[in-house]
Amino acid sequence: MVLLSADTLPLERDEQIVVVRQAVRQRAIELGFSLVDQTKIVTAASELARNTIQHGGGGTALIEAVNDGARRGLRLTFEDQGPGIADIDLAMKDGFTTAGGLGLGLSGAKRLSNEFSIVSAPSRGTRVVITRWK
Question: Could you count the other beta carbons within 10 Å of the beta carbon of residue 37?
């Protein structure tokens, strides 16, 4: 896989979620994503950015345009140094919530992505990587 470009954005305050959404949409447009695919990746980014702030106490969003042979895509990495997730399998279930929401953040982001990975451990933070291919 070849990295075409990358931007790291801070996620410390709710207002920065909008900045991440705008940056992801702009990059998706530049890569020629359809409106539907733009909406999917932006929605996933919004959910993961919100989780980074609400549950992780803040962190970063890394936006990368990538090329894998004939495929071009957008890889997003959300990382925090927060309390981590004790039970990832439970956290991935639709309806599971610790903040009183709908419990669709992680599972929804996974459904909206072509590739999804999560690494987390108590007291070690969380790293979620998603990729959407054009």
Answer: 19
Gap between the Cα atoms of 34 and 86, Å rounded: 37
Count CA atoms closer than 13 A to 104's CA, side-chain side: 7
Which residues have a Cβ under 8 Å from the Cβ of 70 and sit 6 or more positions away? none
CA 109/CA 94 separation, integer angstroms? 11
Mean pLDDT computed over every residue of the chain: 91
Pull the structure tokens for residue 64. Answer: 């990368």
**Does the pTM exceed 0.90?**
yes
What's the per-residue H, E or C state across 88-132? Answer: HHHHCCCCCCCCCCCCCHHHHHHHCCCEEEEEEECCCEEEEEEEE
Residue of 79, 66, 53 lying closest to 115 (CA atoms): 66
Q: Where are the domains of the chain?
A: 2-133
- pLDDT of residue 102 exceeding 60, the answer is no
For domain 2-133, give the fold: Heat Shock Protein 90 (3.30.565)
Amino acid in position 55: H
